[in-house]
Amino acid sequence: MTYCVCMMLDRGLVLMSDTRTNSGVDNISSFRKMFHWSVPGERIIALMSAGNLATTQSVISQLEERNKAPDERHNSLLEAPTMFQVATIVGELLAETVQGSLDNNGQSSSSKFSASIIVAGQIRGMEPRLFLIYPEGNFIEASLDTPFFQIGETKYGRPIIVRAYDREMSFEDAVKLLMVSFDSTLKANLSVGMPLDLLIIGRDEFEPLHSRRILEDDAYFNSVSSGWGDALKKAIEELPYYRIDTD
Fold this sequence. Notes:
Layout: E1 3-9, E2 12-17, E3 20-22, E4 29-30, E5 34-39, E6 43-51, H1 53-68, H2 83-105, E7 115-123, E8 129-133, E9 139-141, E10 148-152, H3 158-164, H4 171-188, E11 196-202, E12 208-214, H5 219-238
Antiparallel strand pairs: 1-2, 1-10, 2-11, 3-4, 5-6, 6-7, 7-8, 8-9, 11-12
Helix pairs in contact: 1-2, 3-4, 4-5
């Protein structure tokens, strides 16, 4: 399983993903799920993936090849005129890869090879944009009503973001919010695991503003985790008293 989130802020975009792909008593694997490409001063594009590992790795590899050697049939993300076209390219490639896996394996259901992708970024002269791409290749775009997207194991971390998200918040507060969301997910589901990858894209920057890998012994993440736990206990204690009648 996976957990990936991208939030759209007035200041730019904040992305975080875990790296766990399999879990079990003696079967734990980690693979990067966040990737980005940039042309300084012109564009930056980031991608996060969830789902079948072979499918997502195939999509990433093909995008890398197209960026290195584009041709008339295969457009490069680094040459697409808009972020909408970037999302279209990724969506078409994802759908082709899923369908190709089905054809090669004779499957009647796409669930085995299913994958979803978050695409975020900005091209010079345009606004930052955020898309969620489904296995069929179709996609939706973030808006004022839907300012963040999640893929993978979303249910444990979503309520925290819904309650605390503010489009005007600082990058620093956004990182804290995502860390709390991921901490809650990590504690609730073994299939999501460290390390975590963090990427911040500033508006009109066209290069990563901040990027780092958060390991299990990361002092700041662990302080957020313990602080959040303590804050929850204190909040419960300060809520109005509930009286149980024993009559």
